Every structure is written in structure tokens, then in C-alpha cells.
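Hey team,

Filing this mostly as a record. A colleague (T.K.) asked me to run one chain through the structure pipeline before their review meeting, and I want the input and output archived in the tracker in case anyone asks later how it was produced. No errors, nothing strange. Just documentation.

Input sequence:
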Amino acid sequence: MLLETGVLVLNRVYQPIHITSVRRAFSLLYQGAAKAIDQEFQLFDFESWSALSVAVHDESVGTVGRRIRVPRVIVLMAYERMPKTRIRFSRFNIYARDENTCQYCGIRLPRVELNLDHVVPRSRGGATSWENVVCSCVPCNLKKGGRTPQEARMRLLRTPSRPRWTPLFRSATRRAFYSEWRPFISLADAAYWNAELLAQ
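Output structure:
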């Protein structure tokens, strides 16, 4: 459903902080708490955004009297802070980091068919940490048993590590990535748009 798709939320200084739904983005626009931003980096309040033509845009929602374009990026008007950048060590976040993929055989599975494996088994002093826990399918987990991957002659796809926070990581269940997000998500583009300009 279009109203539940993703909208990138920027703080007042154009740093990405969250991904919300189209429904919530419209609510923030209507309340005046946010403004929509287009590909030309122009800001629009609810009324001016509503007045834009939807003829050339596929993504729009209908209201009683008109259709309104779906914004893909909004800017909060009174919020400058960045959210906490520490990612909680949880089952959900390990699955998100490993993209629901067994880190031994590379098969991507529904979460209910995956479990977690300690690379260095707990019985051998392995820690329950970002650096020692990976997603594993049941057959690979059984094959590995209480051994290290080397002892079981299995190879990890990648070395497990603590993930870096991004607004996309927080919404790992949403696989869509919209082109309108790119200037704010890409570090190079973000640096370009947010760098302080010095007088010559």
C-alpha cells in the first residue's frame, strides 16, 4: 500500500535521521512540523506541495477534492539533533545486518527458518557479541555443531562486526530505496550539500 511506503526524514540541517511512512509524512506536513523537498532542493509546506501538478508523477494519493504527490523526502523544521547511533544487539538487528542470509551457505531464508550461531562456540569461550554471532540456516548450524568454522570446514561469507547506524539500517525490513534519497544518504553527496561555504 502506497501510504505505508518509505519517506526519508531529514533533520533541520538536512541530515538523514529516520525513515517514516507516507501516511506519517503527510501528517507532519499538514501540521507544519515538516516541509517536503523536491529534486531541485526546494522546500514546500503542505499547501504549496498540494498545489504541485501530479500529472507527470505516478505516485500520488487521492483526497476528497484532489490528488497529492507523494513526497519521498521531508525536512523537520525544528529538530537539529541526530538520533542515538548505537544499534542495539538484538536478534532482529542481527538478521537485518546479515540480510536474512545464512552466513555459511549464502541462502536467504524467511526469519522463521533461520537461527543464530556463535562462530566460536560458547562452550569454547565464544562471546555473545556482534563480532561472534551470525545468521545460520538450521542445516548449516547442525553441520557446524560445537566446532569452529575451520574445524567444520565451513567458511563465513563475511566476518561479523558491529553495524554502523544509518536511517536505512533502522528500516531494514523496507527494501525500497528511492532515487530522491540518494543525495542525502550518499556520504559524498551529503558532504557536498552540507559543507560550509567559505567566503573567497
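Quick notes for T.K.: Residues 2-83+166-194 form one domain. The radius of gyration is 22 Å.
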